[in-house]
Amino acid sequence: MKKGESAITFVFSLIFIVATITIFYALFSLSSLSNSEFRINQINLADIQINLVNYLRTPLQNNENIADLIVSSYYNDDYKKLQEVSGEIFNMVYDKERCPLWNIKGELDDKKFFEYESKFDVRTYTLSPNPRNFIRLFTDKYILPQEHSLDLIFPDNKKAKITLEEGCIHE
Amino acid sequence: MNKKAQSDISHEFIIWIPRIIVLVLAAGFVIFLVNIPITKNFEIDKLQQDILRQRFVYNENCLAYKDENNVYPGIIDKLKFNQLNLDNCFKANDRVGVNLNLITNDVKTINLNKNVAEKLNFCFDTKHFACTNYTYYILFKDDKSLERGLLNIAMVKLK
Questions:
Q1: CA distance linking residue B55 with residue A61, whole number of Å
Q2: Are the C-beta atoms of residues B137 and A93 closer than 8 Å to each other?
Q3: Which of A71, B39, B100, B141 is 20–30 Å from B77 (CA)?
Q4: Are residues B88 and B140 in the same domain?
Q5: Which residues are CB-contacts of A26 (< 8 A; sequence separation ≥ 6)?
Q6: Is A14 an 8 Å CB contact of chain B?
Q7: Contact B73, B64 (CB under 8 A)
């Protein structure tokens, strides 16, 4: 092989190596990005947990709390008071400026038996902190939805899953 | 050394120049790619504040209510919401300031590390300050009954 050909082969080899590394890097960064977000979000779950536990043990009249109200609402098929109390609490906790998204729902055998949420305009925010999300070109604000669930045991041993989701603004 | 050998060495040297340039460019490109997302995706300051903030509602030495046997995270002992107790409970470092607002029938405010906490108004300057703000839905013991309230914790850290 001539020396000129050797140099060209070397340069093309390097380009090939860089291209290969770039492809592997892209795959690696996509997977590692979601992993790091997952770990960091776990810490914030302790905040939502407090809000959900306190919601369930909020005292009402007659020595009852909201967990009791959920049970009685389910058996009486009357959710009016539950809706009223839930809205009152979460609209007070999550103000529209900082945390415009909240959602509380109850599921029994994977079927929702109640769900209430804030009036949330999804068009105003991006729902991902991913810098590759093209919507971030138009706004720096993004909402990071996080949720936490607790089990609630009914008198007939049915197990309901109560889930609170919140979405606060990050910049 | 004869002239042919000298010519070969200088010829080899000239051939190696573009190879070294391409190698340096390739290495620089890879380092550039690796560094950008890593620096963008780690917000250690906010993570630290999240952990410090949770201490207030989970720790019996801070605000968490404790009866004879158990600690109740999220239930606040109003008697513990005073400057002395919170100064003792929050000994993070001098670079973090905290503004706590306990909202019940009235609003009580306490600042920790006052000199830094006063900088909360400058949180728009993200180059120099890292800020977090979270509101907990809390219950607090009032005589024997539980009452509803909010605990807002705003934190600022000097970068």
A1: 31
A2: yes
A3: A71
A4: yes
A5: none
A6: yes
A7: yes
Report helix, strand or coil for B25. helix
Has residue A6 got a pLDDT over 90? no
Same domain for B29 and B52, yes or no, is no
Nearest to B140 by CA among B64, B54, B34: B64
Yes or no: say if B65 and B49 are a contact pair by the CB < 8 Å rule.
no
Is A14 close to B29, i.e. CB distance below 8 A?
no
**Count of CB atoms within 10 A of residue A148's CB?**
19
ipTM of the complex: 0.73
Same domain, B48 and B38: no
Give the pLDDT confidence of B34-58 residue by residue, as tens digits. 766 555 556 688 888 888 999 999 9
In the DSSP assignment, the letter for residue B144 is: T
Model confidence pLDDT, tens digit, residues A34-79: 555 555 666 678 889 999 999 999 999 888 999 999 999 999 999 9
Predicted structure pTM score: 0.74
Domain coverage including residue B59: 44-158
Do B82 and B92 reside in the same domain of the chain? yes
- Interatomic CA distance for residues A59 and A97, integer angstroms: 28
Measured between CB atoms, does A96 come within 8 Å of chain B?
no
Q: What are phi and psi of B37, to 5 degrees?
A: -65, -30
Q: Which of B37, B53, B139 sits opposite A54 (nearest CB)?
A: B139
